[in-house]
């Protein structure tokens, strides 16, 4: 499995960590647990995504709001702190997120050029959109990445794109971003009893799987598997928002999956993509509970067994 990670992904606010139910340094824990796994190959973006690229995606009013601490605090769902400057927020939270966007972009480029599946530990900011940021999402990495790939000729506007969203929350930012783009297919499995509840973005989902709060793994996996069976199309690229806020220990997601259920979910995803030979980049999405890192570690280890080892692939090429 090819995994994108940078030390710069980690969000460490020191004393301010208590302000959010958020394990911001889970990425380094996942990296540490997998760095000796010979079936896992790590690669890192060189630089965070440039603000010029972000601005090219945003509406003119949002270009101002992403630089205003009042609006950024609101999107991060923490109270405004008079002693925290925009520079602090930018350095400690927004810059790590821009590294996450760069990881999504590098993963998508590599997936397109190799036909393989890549896994970005960060990214999957599915509540952000061109004219809004909310739900701890500032930059819509999938939208920014799609725009850049088209601009650079790596994708045609006509290419069919698949977005699978298995985060506990409905991906309103992606639904809004691709509201009028019928080349993009959305499959979304979500807790229908929690934020966001906007009907007009839910209506955009091509293959919706709304679940009641408290849904357990068996039902979730059955419904997800049925949804994957409905996919029909030759997708040039897939993005997967693989949020781990579906875990029982997650206070925000309201679903009751175990670590084993998350592992099985990612196996279903990878098998479905492989079956269709769809290049893909999986993204971290939400999920910062105490079990989140462990479930990602177990899922990447399990999915690595389904794919040829990157080392073995290189060996074969060199002979
Ligand atoms: Zn979520």
From TrEMBL:
<feature type="domain" description="Histone deacetylase">
    <location>
        <begin position="88"/>
        <end position="299"/>
    </location>
</feature>
<dbReference type="InterPro" id="IPR023696">
    <property type="entry name" value="Ureohydrolase_dom_sf"/>
</dbReference>
<dbReference type="InterPro" id="IPR023801">
    <property type="entry name" value="His_deacetylse_dom"/>
</dbReference>
<dbReference type="Pfam" id="PF00850">
    <property type="entry name" value="Hist_deacetyl"/>
</dbReference>
<dbReference type="InterPro" id="IPR044150">
    <property type="entry name" value="HDAC_classIV"/>
</dbReference>
<dbReference type="InterPro" id="IPR037138">
    <property type="entry name" value="His_deacetylse_dom_sf"/>
</dbReference>
<protein>
    <submittedName>
        <fullName>Histone deacetylase</fullName>
    </submittedName>
</protein>
<keyword id="KW-0378">Hydrolase</keyword>
């Amino acid at each position: 499995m090819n995994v994108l990670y940078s030390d710069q992904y980690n969000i460490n606010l020191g004393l301010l960590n208590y302000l959010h139910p958020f394990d911001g340094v889970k990425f380094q824990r996942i990296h540490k647990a997998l760095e000796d796994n010979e079936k896992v190959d790590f690669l890192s973006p060189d630089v965070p995504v440039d603000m010029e690229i972000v601005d090219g995606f945003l509406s003119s009013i949002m270009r101002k709001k992403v630089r205003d601490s009042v609006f950024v605090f609101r999107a991060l769902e923490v109270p405004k702190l008079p002693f925290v400057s925009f520079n602090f927020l930018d350095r400690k939270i927004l810059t790590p997120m821009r590294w996450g966007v760069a990881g999504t972009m590098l993963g998508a480029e590599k997936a397109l050029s190799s036909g393989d599946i890549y896994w970005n530990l960060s990214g999957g900011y599915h509540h952000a959109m061109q004219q809004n940021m909310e739900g701890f999402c500032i930059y819509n990495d999938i939208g920014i990445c799609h725009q850049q790939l088209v601009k650079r000729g790596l994708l045609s506007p006509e290419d069919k794109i698949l977005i699978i969203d298995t985060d506990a929350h409905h991906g309103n930012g992606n639904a809004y971003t691709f509201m009028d783009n019928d080349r993009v297919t959305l499959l979304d499995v979500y807790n229908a009893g929690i934020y966001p509840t906007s009907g007009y973005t839910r209506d955009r989902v091509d293959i919706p799987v709304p679940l009641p709060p408290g849904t357990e793994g068996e039902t979730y996996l059955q419904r997800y598997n049925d949804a994957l069976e409905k996919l029909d199309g030759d997708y040039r690229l897939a993005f997967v928002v693989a949020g781990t806020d579906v875990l029982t220990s997650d206070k925000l997601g309201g679903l009751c999956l175990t670590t084993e259920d998350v592992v099985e979910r990612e196996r279903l995803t990878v098998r479905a993509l492989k079956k269709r030979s769809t290049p893909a980049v999986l993204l971290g999405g939400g999920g910062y509970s105490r079990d989140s890192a462990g479930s990602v570690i177990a899922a990447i280890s399990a999915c690595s067994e389904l794919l040829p080892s990157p080392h073995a692939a290189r060996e074969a090429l060199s002979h």
